[in-house]
Specification:
mainly beta, SH3 type barrels, OB fold (Dihydrolipoamide Acetyltransferase, E2P), 3 domains, five-stranded antiparallel sheet, 53% strand, elongation factor, Elongation factor P, NA-bd_OB-fold, cytoplasm, Transl_elongation_fac_P
Length: 188
């Protein structure tokens, strides 16, 4: 058993007969009244996001998990297939277990959280940023870097990302996976 002082991003807990992963949390100590922890949790079984408030010192049941490196192989329309980097076993996951599946390209190495009780995969964590190629966007205008104006662009994986006006088709850009936003252009 853990308490609210152990809450951190990525912690998996049992709550309402389901397993949830903590996405965001905030310890709040108001001037009047007891302290509490405000959390945003995502169900690892169905992908629903739940806002919840725990009072300070509340006991929570944490789930023991292990992390393993897996390589994304392919998407067959229903399942996403991954291969363990250590023993080459393969697993398949539904889209609900993935945070931003549209940002994964084949061959990408991701971290998979696995429940140690039943060896079931719980969730997939992408790297902090990914480099993708722009396949479709309006033509860029040279010298148009001073404003914060953006335009939609389609990546090689099919993801839609807003990019600055100077980005052209064929450019490679770095995307922050937690927000799904443009970070910088990559020269290779």
């Amino acid at each position: 058993m853990a308490s609210t002082s152990d809450i951190r991003n990525g912690l998996c807990i049992k709550y309402n007969n389901d397993i949830y992963k903590i996405i965001e949390f905030l310890h709040v100590k108001p001037g009047k009244g007891p302290a509490f922890v405000r959390t945003k949790m995502k169900s690892v079984t169905n992908g629903k996001v739940l806002d919840n408030t725990f009072s300070a010192g509340h006991k929570i049941e944490d789930v023991r998990v292990e992390t393993h490196k897996f390589q994304f192989l392919y998407h067959d329309g229903e399942f996403y297939h991954f291969m363990n980097q250590e023993d080459y076993t393969q697993i398949r996951l539904l889209e609900a277990a993935l945070d931003k599946p549209e940002l994964m390209k084949e061959g990408e190495v991701v971290t998979v959280l696995i429940n140690t009780e039943d060896n079931m995969p719980l969730s997939v964590d992408l790297p902090a940023s990914v480099v993708l190629e722009v396949t479709a966007t309006e033509p860029g205008v040279k010298g148009n870097t001073a404003t914060n104006a953006t335009k939609p662009a389609t990546m090689e994986t099919g993801a839609e990302v807003n990019v600055p006006l100077f980005i052209n088709e064929g450019d490679k850009i770095k995307i922050e996976t937690d927000k799904g936003t443009y970070k910088e252009r990559v020269k290779e």
